[in-house]
Amino acid sequence: MWAWCAGVAGRVARLDRGGRVFSRVWVKQKAWEEECRIRGRAGLWRAAGGSLFLLCAQAARHTPARCLREGGLFLDPEDDQLTEARPLEMNEVSALTHTSLLKQASGAAVDSALQLLHRTVRATLDFAQQHRKQLQEVIDLLEYCTAMLRHPEEHDRLWELLVAARVQADSLKQQLRDLNLLLTYACSTVENTAMAAFISGNEFSASAARQMTDSAKLELKTDERKTEVLEAQYIHAHTLYIEAAQRVVDEAKISDDGGDDVEKDDDGLKIDSIVSESKDDSWHEGAESENESQESKDKEGLEGIEFDDR
Description:
Elements: H1 2-39, H2 42-60, E1 66-67, E2 74-75, H3 77-94, H4 98-147, H5 152-199, H6 203-254, H7 259-284, H8 286-309
Antiparallel strand pairs: 1-2
């Protein structure tokens, strides 16, 4: 404290000394102007102006070059370095408090959770786009098969392509289920870390996490609607295929010129319709089949336990 007061007093003394020098120069300059006006020497006036500039520059050497906004005191350049070092020391000490460390840790946790959420959302949207593309291919092939019901060879070739496309679509749909499960845990992680950040005093990170979570959910909901529209189109196309196949079978039964060949074709069409129905059931009831397989495994495990007890 005393050192600071002494420094301020020294600066005030230098300011006073510089002011006195400037006032003496100003008085001399006024006297010289009066003498030049009387004698009419314009050249001497210009020379005096130059000397005034030099004297002011010399007086400015005794005054500081800059002023701090917060204090309003003029400081020397060497004193400026000391004032910059003290706040740094204070910041380092305050950064080691429990409150500051908790804010930093909660902010880092929120950033990690948001990164996991962002990566999961991007992967989900990417796989959903691929799934819709594959599902659109299945719909197109199913429509071609419907149009080629009266051409067995072309129908069989398209049906093989349709089965392969369905397998690929099923694989993508299973990957989407896994990503949706991961997305559920990622959203839960973000919500928990955001709450921890809010409790520790990091309100900004908590608010940002909440906004990003809502934005991700809205984006995923919009993407799910696109998938639902395509799945409805697939169901409609499959229904049209079954109806068209049934009409071909009925027409073959009514016609009188079909003979044995028509009966064979009828059997083939019936088999195709049965296969398509079974594929459709496996497509829309995959979850139920998984549950049934899990229940059968549980029953086998229980039977094994009873056998060991015996």
